[in-house]
């Protein structure tokens, strides 16, 4: 048997392998593509629930176009605003390394695209694969302006699970039988909570249980025995959702474009902003099966208690004896609206498939109380004070109710050195300690309105504990951090105990996410490394809470050199 020892010719062999590595490295980028798109934001007639509305869409589609790319690809998307509202687009979960100018939240990283204007978003997908999504980030436009982002692995790199026969994006949405912007405008005028939605949707359609909807119910044909990858996105404006498929098991394989240890479940709980990839095998009797979603409600507040459906239809399913009509679909058993035990059990099963690179030495340990509040009115009988007991609803983090600037965006003001737009004195802990989930004194219910940022050194290791409060009501607040992914290292109910709770942290294989909910009346802890310079919004993804102030932003300083520094803004960046 002939063999070669590397030590015989160390120089030439090492040189050969070095050259080989270079070729492999170059080849990994050789297939990277540049995708050009034009997104026209405009009103189009859309009929749902028996009525036609002038609905804001992208390219006349509702939901909007699906973006399909590979890891390493670049997207160049020109957004043309032909609507009557200011607009921006956010690429939810995309890291946007050194490129906050493409992130999209209005008055944070850019001024809005005004009607009749345009702006081109340019960004590269870097070391991400899975399901993300895009949506408007300007008031309530995202009620109808949203779509999927599917990031396939680089060429030649397989999924870490068996290749499915087909893939189906499932976008869970929320529909108002009126203009959503008018619903928000009325709520902001009165100070009361906005009207709840009239329907939930799957891929834009309410489904069989709503008026005038059954003819357009989404139907997904499948062959018996095949395995399908469902890429599920909660694009609903204000509601966590339970989702399941009748008689079928769901195998969870990824969340928020990060793979997980696979586990099987009958139902998932998914919060606004989150994505969940599941494998489903058509292994039941050939028939028609409903997939369905309804609310998981954690607040003491009104909510939409309707159920949206679509149909998983076996191509070999028999027809009924009556005129060859399809059989009536079988309905799934979904948890109760307030079934926190099921929601908690689901999220507790999420794990990374490998040992995670969790920051261990923490530079910034932050405790953020998140919740609602009430603004007292000098004239409680005013039309502008229609909240509880003549107040106006508010929300805050650490008692600071975030005020979005209007004269300039935060990032533009920072880059240009413009003073007076924000301060960097956001409190790292609650200004006043209290029993966060107990009976809170009414004197602590009114937050302070301000535009405060928290400054982070480049590459600092950060831990945040999000602590829900019982002010007004406890609630699951899905917290989304722009520009970053983070590890979810622990959670619990009641008040976080810094002496005993860290011992329960999972620092081995915690899931990686970009959006995580606070358990109602509880806390959740995350860790990340501040390796992306710029200004990055942190906010609750329940969009009712965003204009109320449940947000803040991190200012991550530049590091050393060009590769650790925010890139210059594009020439067509909108001005305020």
TrEMBL record:
Q: Which domain of life is it from?
A: Eukaryota
Any one GO biological process: lignin catabolic process
- First-level EC class: oxidoreductase
**What are the UniProt keywords, alphabetically?**
Apoplast, Copper, Glycoprotein, Lignin degradation, Metal-binding, Oxidoreductase, Repeat, Secreted
Cofactor dependence: Cu cation
The record places domain Plastocyanin-like at: 42-154, 167-316, 425-558
What the record says about family reads: Belongs to the multicopper oxidase family.
What is the recorded name of this protein?
Answer: Laccase
Organism, scientific name: Gossypium anomalum
